[in-house]
């Protein structure tokens, strides 16, 4: 005779089974991590389903966040494409390659390998490309450019990517060749080959792209496809001496806006400070390449020489080697605004 009060209810049994399964999964995951089973090497790829899932997750995450950044209405001007070409040449081609140009050897050893961006506009909207370039992609090797390119430069890169599918290797070389000398007069540089559009491979593109024909049509700043007879235009040397020096005083505000402390924490991460210093409240590796940056306000000196005031700290952060020629801390090209932001944070923590 079974005692009804001791019979296990089906609901309770299901919960017990679920708890046991969850417990086993947790033990399995802990063993997987703790025993070092996961292959972290860049030669070992993800499993194909994992790769596909990550790609899908990336796409959805970018599309959702890029919504807040519609492209400026005058995006596809000749000026922007020229400036974007300079930025691409200076900051992107080593990893992503370009028409007729291979990535640098180190980039080919990366996992995931940086994709060719020639057809990036097939997969991404303009605001997506802006968002990716500005924010980077975590755990992939794609850097964030927010602290290295200003907002105009970021959109110029997008305009350039828009023109890329129609660009021949010769056109690319002509474009970046004349974009090489920052701000200088370009006399003496031979005009590149003709820059007419390459029509046959472009059918099926999802939408209108910046016409490469408009590049170098002497002053035409019109919208995509509006100017330039294919095959006759040459790059305009005078206006192509573009700078893309990546000196960002303070990045344009993000949505949602960050607090001052959060901005400082982001500045420490984006300027490489966390590679050498543990900093209170800032996520980073467990490092002791440099001293832990806490309690600086109560100290007599910082770096053995500078004084622990906002001025003194900011001066050290901007140019430690000017204060102590033998310090191992490198001069990192930090702007005054960013240095003061970090100095105030350090004095308060
Ligand atoms: C250190 C190498 C590196 C540099 C430099 C770099 N990237 Fe990337 N980039 C990557 C990697 C790795 C990925 C992720 C793999 C992928 O999807 O291409 C990526 C992804 C991208 C993507 C998404 C591509 C796609 O189809 O999924 C875009 C767009 C992009 N990068 C733009 C740029 C731009 C613009 C620059 C220059 C301002 C740049 N990258 C510089 C490594 C780099
Ligand atoms: C390559 C490693 C490295 C990087 C990157 C680096 N530092 Fe340093 N930093 C050091 C070393 C080493 C010292 C000790 C220097 C000395 O005393 O000569 C130091 C000292 C300091 C000090 C003085 C600390 C004390 O206890 O006296 C401050 C403040 C500081 N760094 C801030 C920063 C900030 C902010 C950044 C990022 C903008 C940064 N550091 C990036 C290596 C680094």
TrEMBL record:
Domain of life: Bacteria
Keyword Ribonucleoprotein applies: no
One Pfam family hit: Cytochrom_C
PROSITE patterns: CYTC
One GO MF term attached to the UniProt entry: electron transfer activity
Spans annotated as Disordered: 186-207, 220-251
Start-end of Gly residues biased regions: 220-229
Keyword set, alphabetical order: Electron transport, Heme, Iron, Metal-binding, Transport
All residue ranges annotated as the Cytochrome c domain in the record: 79-165, 259-349
Designated name of the protein: Cytochrome C
